[in-house]
Amino acid sequence: MRRERLKKLWDRYSVLIILAVVLIVAGVGGWRGYDYLETKKAQDAGAAFEAAVTLSDDNKPAEAEAAFNKIVAEGPKGYRTLARLRAAAESAKRDPKAAAQFFDAIAADSSVGVVEQDLAKIRAAGLLMESLSFPDMMQRLEPVAAAGRTYRHTARELLALSAWRNNDTTATRQWLDAIAADAQTPPSMRSRAEALQALLPAGAKS
């Protein structure tokens, strides 16, 4: 009786069972193939990135920039943002203003992570600081200088320097105090802040 029932079930559903097995096997095979291709892409991109870094270290900025831009165009997502940042850095060696625009584009790209956006804002502001007013620097860097942001220390130092360049002693003191009050401020930056603090007029010191 059991054999007859099983035979009837098999006769009725064998096609569906076979189809299900084929789909499972095909799905597993497809996933493994996709995983292999993605892994290979990542490996190839990693090797290309290292080669571009080597070009940069060998003082070949034009070749390095081209190599990084190729990764931006062809590489997997994980490497594209890093390559964009490095390509912009290489372009800064020949045209700082153009490089600042590249960094600004990264900072404005919503598909880029907040940390990378903040880094791009820092790099752009650093390249343009000599030509920007303090309000312009504030617009660019005040959010980056907020508590908890990864690059807050550098943003605060750039803001203090910009305020100093623009003869705004009150703002200079504000940002130097922020540097001093943050327990995680790097020692070297703290020393530079103290040196700048010593240059402030007596009435402007903390």
Care to describe what's here?
- The protein folds into 2 domains: 87 residues; 73 residues.
- The mean pLDDT is 88.
- Helices cover 78% and strands 0% of the residues.
- It is mainly α and 206 residues long.
- Helix 1 runs antiparallel to helix 2, helix 3 runs antiparallel to helix 4 and helix 8 packs antiparallel against helix 9.
Describe the secondary structure blueprint for this structure:
Blueprint: H1 2-57, H2 61-74, H3 77-91, H4 96-107, H5 114-128, H6 134-141, H7 152-165, H8 169-181, H9 187-199
Helix content: over 70%
Instruction: Give the CA-CA distance, first to last residue.
Output: 96 Å
Summarize the helix and strand pattern as letters.
HHHHHHHHH
Q: β content, as a range? A: under 5%
On the 0 to 100 scale, the average pLDDT is 88
Biggest beta sheet summary: none
Quick summary of this structure?
The chain has 206 residues and is mainly alpha-helical. The chain has helices at residues 2-57, 61-74, 77-91, 96-107, 114-128, 134-141, 152-165, 169-181, 187-199.
Provide the descriptors you would attach to this structure in a database record.
single chain, 206 residues, mainly alpha, 2 domains
